[in-house]
Amino acid sequence: MREGWVPPHPERNDAPPEAAVPGAVSPGEATPPSMSPAPGQGAAKATPDGRDVPDQHTASAGADAAAPDAVAQLDWADLQARVAACTLCPELARSRNHTVFGTGDPGARWMFIGEAPGAEEDRRGEPFVGRAGQLLDRMLAALGMDRGQGVYIANILKCRPPNNRDPRPEEAHACRPYLDRQIALVRPRVLVALGRVAAQNLLDTAEPLGRLRGRILDYRGTPLVVTYHPAYLLRKPQDKRKAWDDLCLARRAVQGEGAEPGERS
């Protein structure tokens, strides 16, 4: 077993990755989406501290901006502009520095979905850029991939909840059309839910993470595998080997091997 980021001893959680896993997915060539605003959409207005809070015209015009019918036909550029101007969750729109749209290969086979941006992600506008993101990068390296090729990374929420609290149900509901459109545009071969909050929101369940792991589930026709959030693995490195098993299960789903959706591996 190629473990890479999995340490031989629990206390060594920063071991460098090993060689790529034989048979890993051949990555595609990334083409970053345009940053131009959607036609007819107002530009975001910077506050004195540099936050991208939309102007009054944009806020009123986009009152139902994340309605599924309004989002389902957007291309990458328009979707990203719509997210940047979103004010559906007033508390999040006021407190954010940047929306965190997502990053990676728009034609990826693997799509990783986390919970919500943290402080560093909110500052930089990119998902998984702190210590948890560094561990995620080592997890990807163990699979022979990186976040720029063959992988797309997004979150349940596009804005950081104050004090890193859990996303509220109404916030996750408001953001869902954005994520669903990202999934539809990427068309991944497998979704990997990172952590309990992401898994429970995607699957609309209250089941604990331990009961969701270890099997290939289904999200609207796409195989979904649940694993631990990298931030949890930093606190509990002894569970890294379980997470590696989850990633191997996801790789089987990508390759069309192993258990059918819902079947224990």
TrEMBL record:
Name the CDD domains on file. UDG-F4_TTUDGA_SPO1dp_like
Q: Which intervals carry biased composition (Basic and acidic residues)?
A: 1-15
Keyword check for Nucleotide-binding, yes or no: no
Give the matching Gene3D superfamilies: Uracil-DNA glycosylase-like domain (3.40.470.10)
- What are the recorded GO MF terms, alphabetically? 4 iron, 4 sulfur cluster binding; metal ion binding; uracil DNA N-glycosylase activity
Where are the stretches annotated Disordered?
1-66
Gene Ontology biological-process entries: DNA repair
Which Enzyme Commission numbers does its entry carry?
3.2.2.27
Residue stretches making up the Uracil-DNA glycosylase-like domain: 101-248
What are the record keywords, sorted?
4Fe-4S, DNA damage, DNA repair, Hydrolase, Iron, Iron-sulfur, Metal-binding
Q: Which reaction does it catalyse?
A: Hydrolyzes single-stranded DNA or mismatched double-stranded DNA and polynucleotides, releasing free uracil
- Keyword Cell wall biogenesis/degradation listed? The answer is no
Taxonomy, superkingdom: Bacteria
Q: Which InterPro entries match?
A: UDG_Type-4/5 (IPR051536), Ura-DNA_glyco_family4 (IPR005273), Uracil-DNA_glycosylase-like (IPR005122), Uracil-DNA_glycosylase-like_sf (IPR036895)
Q: Which SUPFAM superfamilies match?
A: Uracil-DNA glycosylase-like
**Pfam families, alphabetically?**
UDG
Q: What does the similarity note say?
A: Belongs to the uracil-DNA glycosylase (UDG) superfamily. Type 4 (UDGa) family.
Q: Which PANTHER family match?
A: TYPE-4 URACIL-DNA GLYCOSYLASE (PTHR33693:SF1), TYPE-5 URACIL-DNA GLYCOSYLASE (PTHR33693)
Q: Report the protein name in the record.
A: Type-4 uracil-DNA glycosylase
